[in-house]
Design goal:
The protein is α/β, with parallel strands linked by helices. Among the domains are: 168 residues, 2-Layer Sandwich (Uridine Diphospho-n-acetylenolpyruvylglucosamine Reductase, domain 3); 176 residues, Vanillyl-alcohol Oxidase, Chain A, domain 3 (3-Layer(aba) Sandwich), CATH 3.40.462.40; 280 residues, no CATH class. Helix content is 43%, strand content 14%. It contains 36 helices and 25 strands. The chain has a 6-stranded antiparallel sheet with strand order 12-14-13-16-17-15, with helices on both faces. It is globular and about 95 Å long. The protein starts with a helix and ends in a 9-residue tail after the last helix. InterPro entries: 4Fe4S_Fe-S-bd, 4Fe4S_Fe_S_CS, FAD-bd_oxidored_4_C, FAD-bd_PCMH, FAD-bd_PCMH-like_sf, FAD-bd_PCMH_sub1, FAD-bd_PCMH_sub2, FAD-linked_Oxase-like_C. Its cofactor is FAD.
């Protein structure tokens, strides 16, 4: 064990010092095309822990790189030293009473901040495309912008204040007068030098004007030298130098933003032009107007997405050289929105277009347009050859040069053999992104990339005096070219700033500034073939906020990165060592297989599918034999499960429920339901026929300890109450959709179970005229699994459409907590469930910070740590005023009940309770 790791273990809890091979590799992976494996990963939950980590690294002579979400694209979040990972202790959010300011910890996800600000009609100014995954620390440290942010609403411009931890351990809160006073006393020399640098710049009119001109367009190359001309107080200069410093000057432990208005009314138009020149002529006309966003897409970008549904037909017939602008206008009310849309259309009347200019206000149509724009980058990534990486670069030009610069970039891409390359960007700011695929496996390919990047840099700097990095940060990728863009004088200013704040070079060396002219060609990330299910992964990290095992073991991105390395070693005949030994638990056992990662993935990868495939490979003959027996004898499996439940309750009476939970390692989830039973076939009667299928979980887990009726009893009562005549399939207790086996990787055995169940449901639903009566299943995962094979209803959908119109409800005055099951999220049924609960309760409360509950079918019993981790934000309670919660899957409800101490039941229970006035005798 190294001296550094021993030092870290003295100052951090053991679980926060990560040294195993698999997690060092996986946690060290970011969205860039660089790969460095950290010596150690140190998770910090407080400023004092961060200070101790930096001090320990400095004492050992090792560098520290600070990591938030790792969505950065330029290599600024990788290291072979200490990776200091920002923990959940920094996921803090304090909103001013009027919403005008928000104080944020660097661990907050940007999209979550905007969700909390929405009730004020406000948002943070920066709006990067990765806002659903990136964190505030990275947004500020990279001065990230986006499609609507421009240069007026980025972190630099909307900064109200910050709290920073310097390399020497000193803390400064620029919004706290006492902290500022102490800092002025302790660091007067540093502040005096900053003031002197600012005076030197202002005394040089040519340099000062060059800095101002460089920041009139988007620019994240190098440090924020505009702080030296925009401010005179060295505290203000220091604060604004921190923005865009990429963790090289200090650790931003808190950032306070001035928020900006989020206009509620929006309209979008996708306008086609015969040429880049015509599109850019339109951009110049729109630049001074009240437009929120203007996105340019060249013909190659349009071609990459032209087969997406919902797009105008003319996109497929566009000539080579054509282009499009995606224009959005926003307003506080409908009248102003219409005025702005009319104004834009009138301005474009003087420009040659392909087809009319038509604004859409339908959110679904607008969303389609924006999905197209956001889908251009992943479309290239999805089509790339296995083993290559997808690279996205961003540059900025004076907007008046945009047309010529775009054509020049197109020519460079073609000239260097990147025929798949596409160009799109934030046209109002002259900010272009170009996307291409690159093979780094041979020296010739690396040389091709090097020549291309040299040519791009010369074009941007020498011909247009533009920005080599507009919004993605400098990183390792552009560090060798900072002096090319800025010149020696300005670059020496940057080196002096780095020396002032980090004289020993501890913080993220090699990022922003480097003496190595080939630094951008070192440590290139391999993307070897691993499995066809995940080979398209671009390691962007968009999946991570939705994954219930993220920060417990691995996220989907990290699972893929780990499996890629194991596969690479296997292909090379090298031993996988500890990677292979630790992967089964970290990579497979703790994957909830919820599929939510696919909903955020730009290329639609469900990493759970990989986990299922790999679980199947390790089952062996015995595992498949047991799976085959379970598929053929599910009635016996159900009986054994009920027996186990009964024995558990007996043991609980002897030793106590809490003791049994501890003795079982958390597998016994008190209060556990009592054993259930298969409901008897309902008596024939009047009413519309419907087939009701209680899922196996509803049959195995019966009444609650408090005497609440079982789920099948409740659903049957509701169906009869609403005038339906329920049927049950024959031999119901032998039926299962196979989800329990599929999740274990027993795909063939699960398929046999599904086929048997489908046949039974068809027979039960036969209406005698060649059709089927409605089939209703009371568990969302089972409905989702069978929906492609048979027209089945998930209970919430059926209840909303077919029960509510027939029931008379008395709404509950207290709040009801809502958990949306993963299957329902994937199927798009969340709105329907929410409407159903809202019909029953005066107030519906979401569980903050809870997505997938991590139960994963029966995984919550076999790996209880996964369920506990996924529900950690509940802290043992429901939100104030909630006495109960609802979900749509029995095992999810068991985990939620055990965690919160309050009953979570199927939404059917709530609906039955609220419709009891229709009968004299309640259930």
């Amino acid at each position: 064990m190294s001296r550094l790791i021993r030092a870290l273990r003295r100052v951090l809890p053991a679980g926060q010092v990560i040294t195993d091979d698999l997690r060092r590799l996986a946690y060290g992976t970011d969205a860039s095309f660089y790969r460095l494996v950290p010596e150690v990963v140190a998770v910090v939950e407080s400023e004092s822990e961060a200070r101790d980590v930096i001090a320990a690294a400095a004492a050992a002579g090792r560098p520290v790189t600070i990591r938030a979400a790792g969505t950065s694209l330029s290599g600024q979040a990788v290291t072979d030293g200490v990776l200091m990972l920002i923990g959940e202790g920094f996921a803090t959010c304090e909103i001013a009473p009027d919403g005008g300011r928000v104080r944020l910890g660097p661990g907050m996800v940007g999209g979550e901040v905007n969700a909390r600000l929405a009730r004020f009609g406000r948002k943070i100014g920066p709006d990067p495309a990765s806002i659903g995954a990136c964190k505030i620390g990275g947004i500020a440290a990279n001065n990230a912008s986006g499609m609507c942010c421009g240069t007026a609403q980025n972190s630099y411009r909307t900064l109200a204040g910050l709290r920073v931890l310097l390399a020497d351990g000193t803390r400064l809160d620029t919004l706290d007068p006492a902290s500022v006073a102490l800092f002025r006393a302790s660091h007067g020399g540093l502040l005096a030098e900053l003031a002197r640098l600012a005076e030197t710049v202002r005394a040089d009119p040519a340099l000062a004007e060059r800095i101002r001109r460089k920041f009139r367009i988007k620019n994240t190359t190098g440090y924020s030298l505009n702080a030296l001309v925009d401010f005179t107080d060295p505290i203000d200069i220091l604060a604004h130098l921190m923005i865009g410093s990429e963790g090289t000057l200090g650790f931003l432990s808190s950032i306070t933003y001035h928020t900006v208005a989020e206009d509620p009314f929006k309209a979008s138009a996708l306008v086609f032009f015969p040429s880049i020149a015509a599109a850019c002529q339109a951009v110049l006309l729109l630049k001074p107007e009240a437009v929120a966003a203007v996105e340019l897409l060249d013909r190659a970008a349009l071609r990459s997405v032209e087969d997406k549904p919902g797009l105008p037909a003319e996109i497929r017939g566009l000539a080579d050289g054509a282009a499009a602008l995606l224009i959005e206008v926003r307003a506080p009310d409908r009248e102003q929105l219409e005025q702005r849309a009319v104004r834009v259309a009138a301005l474009l009347g003087g420009v040659e277009t392909v087809g009319p200019v038509a604004f859409a206000t339908d959110p679904a149509v607008c969303e389609t347009f924006w999905k197209v724009r956001k889908g251009t980058f992943p479309s290239v990534g999805a089509m790339r050859r296995t083993g290559t990486t997808v690279i996205i670069e961003d540059v900025a030009f004076p907007v008046e040069s945009l047309a010529e610069a775009t054509l020049d970039l197109q020519a460079l891409l073609v000239g260097h053999g990147y025929h798949e390359g596409i160009i799109f960007g934030h046209a109002l700011e002259g900010n272009l992104h170009f996307v291409f695929t690159q093979d780094f496996s041979t020296p010739a390919e690396i040389e091709r990339y090097a020549g291309f990047m040299d040519a791009v840099c010369r074009l941007v700097v020498d011909k247009y005096d533009g920005s080599l990095k507009a919004e993605h940060g400098t990183g390792r990728n552009m560090a060798p070219f900072v002096e090319l863009e800025w010149g020696r004088q300005a670059t020496e200013l940057m080196r002096r700033i780095k020396q002032l704040f980090d004289p020993h070079g501890v913080l993220n060396p090699g990022v922003i500034l480097t003496d190595d002219p080939h630094a951008h060609l070192h440590h290139l990330k391999p993307l070897p073939p691993a499995d066809d299910l995940v080979d398209r992964c671009i390691e962007c990290g968009f999946c991570e906020p939705l994954c219930p095992s993220h920060r417990l073991t691995l996220s989907p991105r990290q699972r893929i990165a780990g499996w890629r390395e194991i596969s690479r070693r296997d292909a090379a005949g090298a031993p996988a060592g500890m990677l292979a030994r630790t992967y089964p638990y970290f990579g497979l056992d703790t994957c909830a297989d919820c599929g939510l990662c696919a909903t955020a993935c730009p290329v639609g990868i469900d990493t759970g599918a990989l986990a299922r495939r790999l679980r199947g490979r390790r089952q062996g003959k015995l595992g498949h034999a047991l799976g085959g027996w379970a598929a053929a004898h599910f009635g016996g499996v159900a009986a054994l499960s009920r027996l186990g439940l009964g024995l558990g309750h007996g043991a609980g009476r002897l030793v106590g429920q809490s003791a049994l939970s501890r003795l079982s390692g958390g597998r016994w989830r008190a209060p556990m339901p009592r054993p259930g039973r298969c409901p008897a076939a309902p008596a024939e009667g009047a009413g519309d026929p419907v087939v009701y299928v209680p899922a196996c979980g509803s049959r195995i887990f019966g009444p609650s300890e408090d005497g609440t009726a079982s789920q099948p009893e409740v659903v049957l009562t509701l169906l009869r109450r609403a005038g339906y005549r329920p049927r049950l399939p024959e031999r119901l207790d032998t039926l299962c959709c196979g989800q329990m086996l599929a999740s274990k990787g027993l795909a063939a055995e699960a398929e046999r179970m599904a086929e048997t169940m489908v046949a039974a449901l068809r027979a039960a639903a036969d209406d005698g005229r060649g059709g089927l009566v409605a089939i209703v299943i009371d568990a969302s995962p089972c409905a989702a699994r069978l929906r492609d094979r048979l027209p089945v209803w998930d209970f919430p959908d059926f209840a909303l459409d077919a029960l509510l119109p027939r029931l008379r409800l008395t709404r509950k005055p207290e709040a009801v907590a809502l958990h949306v099951n993963c299957s329902l999220r994937r199927s798009g049924g969340e709105a329907g469930l929410r409407a159903l609960v809202a019909a029953c309760a005066e107030r519906v409360v979401d569980l903050a910070g809870v997505g997938c509950c991590g139960f994963g079918g029966d995984r919550g019993f076999s790996v209880p740590a996964l369920n506990a981790h996924a529900l950690r934000t509940l802290d043992g309670t429901l939100p104030a005023g909630c006495g109960q919660g609802v979900s749509t899957n029995r095992t999810c409800e068991i985990g939620l009940t055990a965690t919160t101490g309050q009953p979570f039941r199927s939404v059917a229970h709530l609906l039955e309770e609220c419709s009891r006035d229709m009968e004299e005798r309640p259930l």
